[in-house]
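for the recovery benchmark. tokens below, seq after
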């Protein structure tokens, strides 16, 4: 599905990713684990087009993403929930959820249908719909960011450090939402980054270990299971 071939990236002249080669398969839930500073966020931002690559190739079902501007990558069916949530504070939660679909020109009935499906996957969002994006707690913001990523992500959803800082109850709700997401969209590829492997439990089907911007053999690979 999504393929990275010898991909490298720099930030402020410092090389962060070093020749990453891997494939994210359709229908898989893939964990990218590594310490802070390993390059996990940079890898997701590169896929979204927010950081230029300096060598290598990123392709989605054979299409070179270097010719697709960052502002239109959501139109390819890629949803993204950044670590800092990135909610628009002056928008309501519902407006935040609808926004990526409206930007790519989806018709109103299609957006309505996508919203109804998203609320069935993340039901905790329904009582928040009328709230301002600025009125959410950190954990609520992460749930809303998940919902927004689901709204856009018909092929792929990228979740950056989603469990960090979540209270146990919210972490359980988040995991349950991922289970419902897999049931609703079994062909969807979900990529989750985490510094603490223990927070993921049995969620991933495959684990990719990242160390100093390079893919390393993962000693816990055998423990990965489908959600």
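predicted aa per position
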């Amino acid at each position: 599905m999504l393929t990275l071939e010898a991909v490298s990236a720099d930030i402020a002249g410092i090389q962060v990713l070093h020749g990453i080669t891997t494939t994210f398969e359709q229908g898989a839930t893939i964990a990218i684990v590594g310490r802070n500073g390993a390059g996990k966020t940079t890898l997701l931002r590169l896929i979204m087009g927010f950081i230029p690559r300096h060598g290598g190739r990123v392709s989605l079902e054979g299409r070179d993403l270097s010719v697709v501007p960052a502002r239109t990558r959501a139109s390819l069916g890629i949803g993204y929930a950044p670590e800092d949530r990135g909610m628009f504070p002056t928008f309501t939660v519902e407006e935040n959820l609808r926004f990526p679909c409206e930007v790519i020109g989806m018709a109103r009935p299609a957006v309505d249908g996508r919203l109804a499906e998203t609320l069935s996957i993340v039901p905790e969002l329904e009582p928040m719909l009328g709230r301002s994006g600025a009125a959410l707690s950190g954990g609520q913001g992460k749930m809303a960011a998940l919902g927004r990523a689901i709204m856009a992500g018909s092929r792929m959803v990228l979740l950056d450090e989603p469990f960090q800082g979540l209270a146990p109850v919210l972490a359980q709700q988040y995991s349950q939402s991922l289970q419902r997401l897999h049931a609703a969209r079994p062909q969807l590829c979900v990529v989750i980054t985490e510094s603490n492997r223990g927070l993921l439990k049995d969620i991933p089907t495959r684990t990719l270990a990242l160390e100093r911007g390079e893919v390393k053999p993962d000693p816990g690979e055998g423990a990965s299971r489908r959600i």
